[in-house]
Amino acid sequence: MAVRFDAAARRAIDLAMTEVENRNHATLDSIHLLLGLLQTPDSAVARACTVLGVSSQAVHQEALSYLKVGQGSGSMLTVEIAGIAEDILQRASILSIERGGDVVTDLDIFIALAERDDTSANRLLRKVGLTAAKLTGAQTAAALLTTAPSAGRPDQASASARNSPMAAASITTTRVGIGYDSHRFAEGGPLVLGGIAIPGDTHLAGHSDGDAIAHALTDAILGAAALGDIGEMFSDTDPANRGRHSLEMLAAGVARARAAGWMVQQVDVVVVTEALRIAPHRAAMAAALAGALGVEISAVSIKGKTNEGMGWIGRGEGIACMAVATLVAAVRGAA
Ligand code: MG
To answer: pTM higher than 0.70 for the full model?
Structure first.
């Protein structure tokens, strides 16, 4: 979905990210979005509030107190999942299309927040009487009251808003990468695969420990973030990389993506081999990989396949792995 956010919407997202960064919070939640949306006096949100007889500045003050109370006691502030802001921005995009607009406005985001009844921001909006229905009704009147010439123009966002992955929600907040690796079997165990050591009399030959799953995953993550590949990060001619643990390489790939503003959401791996059954090792592999990836174990999928006896895999000469990784925009500087 190619959707543009107007200048006010981008400014609100930028301000929301600043709220997160200044408070050292880990994720961008609904309350940060609300704070970002309420900081511009002449925005569509402020005008809609005026139409409905509510002071946007008063709501802003109350949102700040929610944040304080929530941090102290946890009684007011709902703990929210990292993807909630993304959901709200996507819903705002749909709202803009439904009303026939060519850009997503700050008011579209505000209405999406008012629709979402499981958030702290929503609880506050309901308390002051700002429901999605009322805001939608006020939308036309707010547009009629437009005085700011830049309100509907998408080309006046600040440089930081344009460059941040979250503000790039106008294009995408999710990336997919693919990785592939193969290694030849050699004599002598153990066999390191999926971050675990499997006892036996063969191993995967390689400059590092030969963990083809970890290598394919590293390339999938670097690929999703468009940050090069594992060979570039860890040259196989560099003695420093001899025997290097592949989980360490995987974690380094995750850190590189993270530094560029991306975090891993989930991965899926296919291992093609006739020489080893994956199922008995799946749980241990998923646990080891989840640690390096920084995700829940349930976000790691590993599947084994044979090659029906065909070719080099069929002859048991080696193993091939394919991996797909999904990355989502992370808040810059978050732990
Ligand atoms: Mg490799």
So the answer is: no
